[in-house]
Design brief:
The protein is of the alpha/beta class and 336 residues long. The protein has helices at residues 10-21, 62-69, 96-102, 108-124, 133-136, 164-171, 200-203, 281-294, 305-308, 314-332, and strands spanning 2-6, 25-29, 41-44, 47-50, 57-59, 74-76, 82-85, 88-91, 156-160, 176-178, 193-196, 213-223, 231-234, 243-246, 258-267, 274-277, 300-302.
């Protein structure tokens, strides 16, 4: 079977590796100049830079962890950001350590005010009250723990030993990859199956209108002054950026220089990259129309954040890709 994969991010690469393992002929088309999508990392001044924000892999899913472990060794990594708030710099997530730093417990209202409200409004671009509870509830309750990581419920918390890009290279070894191509170039191929990871509304030429997304702007700066911590969340509106981070922590090198990045949330437009679907009522109703079209397709599989219009952590993207490819093969090939 000849397979065209549109997009060389985590979802597309997972599908490519899976289909190649099963003996299919795979070709990947990617509009960016690099593989790896938003997980892409590479060296700047001898510092391994996560070009699209810090990506800490975390999961409890044994299938996903086992699958990726075929292509990389792992370095354990504890994600414990600091928060710059109106009551000082504090440890996050909120815990007994935070309480000790402040000198008292915060009420539920104070936690919302000092930790979540301003950060969330900058991130999503809407009033806090309009942000779906499903987003707020993604942060676990850690108030009774001593010094938890951000992903305290996950067994595996780590980063690839040699970086995500090196892991992706192994995943797509032997697969034809076309980078920096036009959006519709894949349509010229002869194929039996398309695995599509781009925006679903774009695939259908915005038939029902455009789905909204949030985007990010990253400002990288080479510096000889390293931060005391990997990440500082900016939990007030005194800054327009939501967080800044020091990439030297990803490789723990001894080079005197590092790269510091500031992350600015913005609305998605045709000139920037879509990062986050907006899981609000009206966009979800619009997505359902596109989903209905997608469900009528026979030789295309839609996977990933953009194609399924869902916020997916990395492990979720891998799991979704594995499951959808397996389902397609079971439904279409094994029945022939």
């Amino acid at each position: 079977m000849n397979v065209v994969i549109v997009g060389c991010g985590l979802s597309g690469v997972t599908a490519a590796a899976t289909l190649k393992d099963k003996g299919h002929n795979v070709k990947i088309f990617e509009t960016r100049k690099h593989i790896g999508g938003n997980c892409y990392d590479g060296l700047i001044c001898n510092t391994l830079v996560h070009h699209y924000g810090p990506h800490i892999f975390h999961t409890n899913d044994e299938e996903v962890f086992s699958f990726l472990s075929r292509f990389t060794e792992w370095t354990p990594f504890s994600y414990k950001p600091k928060g710059v708030t109106e009551i000082g710099k504090i440890s996050l997530p909120y815990s007994k350590k935070t309480i000790s730093e402040i000198g008292r417990e915060l009420s539920v209202e104070e936690i919302e005010k000092y930790i979540f409200r301003d950060y969330s409004e900058k991130q999503w671009g809407i009033p806090f009250e309009e942000i779906p509870k499903s987003i707020i509830k993604r942060i676990p309750d850690t108030s009774k723990l001593e010094d938890p990581t951000w992903f305290k419920n996950d067994k595996y918390q780590c980063i690839p030993k040699n970086g995500y890009t090196e892991m992706f290279k192994k995943m797509i070894s032997g697969i034809d990859v076309k980078l920096n191509c036009d959006k519709g170039e894949w349509k010229k191929e002869n194929y039996d199956l398309v695995v599509y990871t781009g925006k679903i509304d774009e695939y259908y030429n915005y038939r029902y209108g455009r789905l909204p997304y949030r985007s990010l702007i990253f400002k990288h700066e080479v510096s000889d002054k390293k931060m005391q911590h990997l990440v500082e969340n900016q939990n007030t509106k005194k800054t327009k950026y939501t967080r800044k981070y020091d990439h030297s922590y990803f490789s723990q090198h001894n080079d005197p220089m590092t790269v510091i990045t500031k992350e600015y949330p913005v609305e998605h437009s045709e000139t920037n990259t879509p990062f986050y679907p907006l899981p609000f009522k009206e966009p979800n109703e619009l997505y359902k129309k596109y989903k209905n079209l997608a469900e009528q397709e026979k030789n295309i599989v839609f996977i990933g954040r953009l194609a399924t219009y869902k916020y997916l952590d990395m492990w979720m993207a891998v799991k979704q890709s594995l499951q959808k490819i397996e389902k397609y093969l079971n439904d279409n090939l094994h029945s022939n």
